[in-house]
Amino acid sequence: MVKGIEESGIPVVHICTVVPISLTVGANRIVPAIAIPHPLGDPNLSKAEEYKVRKRIVDKALHALTVEVTEQTVFEN
Amino acid sequence: MATGNSEVVNNAKALSIEVDKMSKLRVIHYINQFYAGIGGEEKADIKPEIREGFVGPGMALNTAFKDEAEIVATVICGDSYFNENIDEVKAEIIEMIKPYNADIFVAGPAFNAGRYGVACGAMCKEVQEVLDMPAVTAMYEENPGADMYKKFVYTVATGNSAATMRKAVPALSQLVLKLAKNEVIGTPEEDGYLARGIRKNIFEEKIGAERAVEMLVKKLKGEAFVTEYPMPAFDKVVPGKAIKDLSKARIALVTSGGVVPKGNPDRIASSSAQNYGRYDISTVHDLTSETYETAHGGYDPVYCNADSDRVLPVDILREKEKAGEIGELYKYFYTTTGNGTSVKNSLAFAREFTKELIADGVDAVILTST
User: Fold this and answer.
1) Of B167, B191, B215, at which residue does a domain stop?
2) DSSP state, B349?
């Protein structure tokens, strides 16, 4: 799906847990997530903490969209 | 005297059984929690364990080995646990299998189960590198694990679901025996594995010029011909241009995590999806357990059903929109289930809805996957 969208020129940031799979499917901007069943959350945390964690990942993803990349890039931090 | 004779016979029998055991090749089998009968997604986070003998699909493999080999132990690990802790798990499993002095390691078949395929490929590669032991796996060619590891590990081609197990077992067991016995492995077509991208020099009866002309003649006649040098498939996509000003950007959410309005109105399949959904979120500020759920099979749905923002972060993007950090959250989100869904289908879905994204002036996409 990433490629089907990005070939149009619209930049895509892929938030996913298993980064090697994302690299294989050809995502160019990749932001690692938390866990497979809850990529943007953590049920072990309180609601407020969990919200913060999710916000941090979305922030990273938004930041990734503002960075020019020429090859597949994983935005770790 | 009669007693003595029968003892001799018995001893001889015992000895031959002993010899038999000694001469059988020792196989370690790797499977996931599902094939071990431990459970589905709710058990995908179990840690690795090792059991004596065969478990689950190992039975059919073991039978196919006849008297030549036997599964001495089976490693079982949850798919999510493996993929989320890949480096530690690999090392842990290596330690588990060391004492068995095995001749070969076999993983799967994983068919089109993505995380399982990655685990099988990764583990085989590790065994080859660390223990210097041959390893072989089996999966569907579109499994992401195949793309990642077929270069390093013999990967028997299977169908895309466990319904093809009966076909997969003979091909897999034969390749296991060949590798364990250090026999010459044939071409991918001959031995039924995915091409590893390795070229071998062979002698042809006809020179290249003759073969090329024959091929050209066939092509001109419109007949079938087989290239001797298939071109690699370059299917990378050029990265989209960066967004200059997020505060003016219209951003769309897309997911392969199967988030749908409660009740799954478009009946998106839990796996091997044939369709995708487009849902209006223009008045939605938060996904709750009353309003949204996941249609995705293949991962534990409990966390997403309780709060779908954990897969599709609508709540955060609304806050960003309100704060002026992004221009706008696009009024629709697009969703399908990623597990077992063919590359062809996913690509077709994306191409179709991307036309709408372009028409509506969407500047960027956040795509989430489980």
Assistant:
1) B191
2) H
Give the CATH number of the domain where residue B136 resides: 3.40.50.2300
Q: Which residue of B has its CA nearest to A36?
A: B370
| Domain coverage including residue B73 | 20-191
A77 vs chain B: nearest CA distance in angstroms? 17
| Burial class, B191, CB count within 10 angstroms (exposed 0-12 / middle 13-18 / buried 19+) | middle
B226 CB burial (10 A radius; 0-12, 13-18, 19+): exposed
- Give residue-wise pLDDT tens across range B38-95: 998 889 999 999 999 999 999 999 999 999 999 999 999 999 999 999 999 999 999 9
Q: Same domain, yes or no, for B27 and B125?
A: yes
Q: Is the ipTM of this complex over 0.95?
A: yes
User: What residues of chain A lie within 8 A of the CB of B317, using their CB?
Assistant: 58
Residues of B in contact with A15 (CB under 8 A): 366-369
Q: Going along B24-133, which residue ranges are E strands?
A: 25-32, 49-52, 69-77, 104-107
Nearest to A1 among B236, B307, B349 (CB): B349
What total number of domains does chain B contain?
2
The length of chain A, given as a count of residues = 77
| From B241, B313, B347, residue closest to A54, measured CB to CB | B313
Q: Are residues B180 and B300 in the same domain?
A: no
pLDDT band at residue B340 under the 50/70/90 scheme: confident
Alpha-carbon distance B112 to B116, whole Å?
8
